[in-house]
Amino acid sequence: MNQLGLPISLDSKMLLDNFLGNKQLLEFITQIYVDKTSAEIYVYGAPGQGKTHLLQGAALRALADQQSAMYIDCRNSLPGHVLESIEQLNWISIDNIDAINANQQNLFFDLYNRAKQARVKMLISGTDLPSELGVMKDLKTRLGLATIFQLKPLNDKLTMLVLNNQMIDRNLSIDSKVYEYLFKYYSRDVKVLLTAMGDLDKASLQAKQSITIPFVKKNEFNYESLISWIGEDARDYVWLIFIPIVIFIITAVSNGANLTDGIDGLAAGTSAIIGVTLALFAWVSGNIIFSDYLNIMYIPNTGELTIFIMSFVGALIGFLWYNAYPAQIFMGDTGSLTIGGIIAVIAIAIRKEWLIPILCGIFLMENLSVVMQVGWFKYTKKKFGEGRRIFKMSPLHHHYQKSGFHESKIVTRFWIVGLFLAIITIATLKIR
Question: What's the pTM value of the predicted model, to 2 decimals?
Fold first, then answer.
């Protein structure tokens, strides 16, 4: 059986009063209601420019005036008996006329002619001019006789107003910077933007956070992207990637701290500098004002973590008092491995794990020096029959000892490098 589009329930929020499109078109439609004259109007424009809003708003306006009205979406199906009531209508909105197929065209042609004879007001929408539609010639001719208006894309100001009205309807307050961010990285299509805002709304409810730039940007690596090729189920398996990475990070930092603990005061002093930096990151991440200003992810309730980190730093400084050259007490593997593990876990907890190579640059250099030394020694021994060295001794601080530098000078200079690395790490707060 030949079919047309089924009448759709109207969205009460899609009113002519909040339509922000062509003002001339709105004035024309309003005048039709005032004059109570018959008219055929055809509007066209790309998807996302408000055609559905306009057509539903017009039908709602007719219903508010105690008139009979119907909204039809040609993308859905309609039994032929619906045509029997066409002459009883005062207003009919027909959306997405470009979606009708060859079998539907005859039914629509009949509907159009009967509605016109009965002086029913018609508002029809499509993506192109009537002459550009893929419909039969007679139908193009009929649509071409209507009063034609084009819906053009909204400017940024009006688009922002549309989005803001939608968020107000949801009792949400959105930072204007969020809209600017969406305009920059998303399509200007209102539908796409509304979908993005809907996703943000759901995510904010789950995370119990307000929708701000830090929340939108997050400034964190999305581990899901590593397995995005799986498809929509990628989120369910992201732990398969995350857990091995966490294990690697904790192992690497722990080992780096352990290797650094080779001369008096080096590991404790370097770790204290790293700890103060992490405390700063934890504090600004837990402060909604600073996190918003710095465009970093807001992490609620990190105040306790900040206190723990500073306690950790205090313990390191207290230990350093007696571990400074010449040392009276020593840390041992248990202490150095624990320090590295604490640093790694804290960095992961505040989502700054990818800053570890910079912040823990001393640990990284110590690790690499051992890897390079051992790797090069084995390679040259296999190739030349004799193992050769890159450094006089590894880890790196022992190389400088063998070069004649005093322990205190080595430690002090390593601290200075650690301070510079900490400053660079902190500077990344605004390099985004």
Answer: 0.59
Which residue segment(s) compose the domain that 175 sits in?
156-217
Do 320 and 256 sit in the same domain of this protein?
yes
Q: What DSSP string describes 153-200?
A: PPPHHHHHHHHHHHHHHTT----HHHHHHHHHHS-S-HHHHHHHHHHH
Final residue before a domain boundary, out of 94, 116, 150:
150
160 falls within a domain: yes
Considering the domain architecture, whether residues 375 and 286 belong to the same structural domain is answered as yes
Residues 209 and 353 in one domain: no
Instruction: Return the amino acid letter for 221.
Output: F
Q: Tell me, yes or no, whether 65 and 196 share the same domain.
A: no
Residue at 82 is within a domain:
yes
CB-based contact 407:264 (threshold 8 Å):
yes
Give the end of a domain, one of 150, 185, 200: 150
In tens digits, the chain (432 residues) has pLDDT values of 344 444 556 777 777 777 777 778 888 888 887 776 778 889 898 877 788 888 888 888 888 888 888 888 888 766 565 667 777 888 888 888 888 877 778 888 888 888 888 888 889 888 888 888 888 888 888 888 888 898 877 777 777 777 777 676 666 667 667 777 676 666 666 667 777 777 777 766 665 666 666 566 555 677 777 887 787 677 778 888 999 999 999 999 999 999 999 899 999 999 999 999 999 999 998 887 787 778 777 787 888 899 999 999 999 999 999 999 999 999 889 999 999 999 999 999 998 999 999 999 999 999 999 999 999 999 999 999 999 999 999 999 999 999 999 999 999 999 999 999 999 999 988 765
- Residue 49 burial (C-beta neighbours within 10 Å; 0-12, 13-18, 19+): buried
User: What is the number of structural domains in the chain?
Assistant: 3
Contacts of 410 (CB under 8 A, 6+ apart): 263, 266, 397, 400, 401
How far is residue 321's CA from residue 338's CA, in Å, rounded to a whole number?
19
